Amino acid sequence: MRTSEIKRVTNETDIKIKLILDGESRGFFGKSGVGFFDHMLNSFAVHGNFKIEAEITGDIWIDAHHTVEDIGIVLGKLFSQVLGDKSKIARFGSAFVPMDESLAFAAIDISGRPYLVFNADFSADLINNYDTQLTQEFFRALVFNIGANLHIKLEYGGNCHHETEAIYKAAARALAAAVTEINGPVLSAKGMLE
């Protein structure tokens, strides 16, 4: 079973997360203090086919930025640890996900070279206490710590909740495809990913 656990403490957050890629259970089990983000993390884990167990304390009285970004950092480090030298994984994944009137696309390459292209114009700036700008911050922190190249595009939408959730689900499905175990050496013409 591919699993890892990290505890990260800063002056802004105290985060302990366990990631389980291959278990029978999936979803997000914890509370960030940002309800909508918890909903997104649960969708991300369920559709990514992994389990996140978390204990999180963050300075959300300032705003949710530090908490959301730091969770992305920790999750990225966990994926990096679990995937090791990135051999025996499919490496690439992509997905279109519709949610009612919204459609999102994500494509990922777990290449060892981090990069994020994020193209989304949200219908609103806030969903409860979740600033929609934090979606980009979460995925940037995630991929720079995994060592992955991720492209996200919100094709169209109309309801900000649906737009954001479609993005998280599309990224999850792309990631699930990329971490799928395969036989053979690392998928790279140069013989390594970095």
The profile of the biggest β sheet is: 4 strands, mixed
Mean pLDDT across all residues, rounded?
94
Give the SSE order as H and E letters.
Answer: EEEHEHEEEEEHEH
Number of strands: 10
Distance between the termini: 24 Å
Integer tally of domains: 1
Tell me the strand order in the biggest sheet: 1-2-4-3
Notes on the protein architecture:
The chain is of the alpha+beta class and 194 residues long. It has one domain (3-178): Imidazole glycerol phosphate dehydratase, domain 1 (Ribosomal Protein S5, domain 2, 2-Layer Sandwich). Helices cover 34% and strands 30% of the residues. The protein contains four helices and ten strands, in the order βββαβαβββββαβα. It has helices at 35-48, 65-83, 133-146, 160-178; strands spanning 3-9, 13-20, 27-29, 51-58, 92-99, 102-109, 115-119, 126-127, 130-131, 149-156. The strands form three sheets. The protein has a four-stranded mixed beta sheet. The chain has a four-stranded mixed beta sheet with strand order 5-6-10-7. A hairpin with a 2-residue loop joins strand 5 and strand 6. Helix 1 runs parallel beside helix 4 and helix 2 (65-83) runs parallel beside helix 3 (133-146). It is globular, with a radius of gyration of 16 Å. The relative contact order is 0.20. The model has no long low-confidence stretch (mean pLDDT 94).
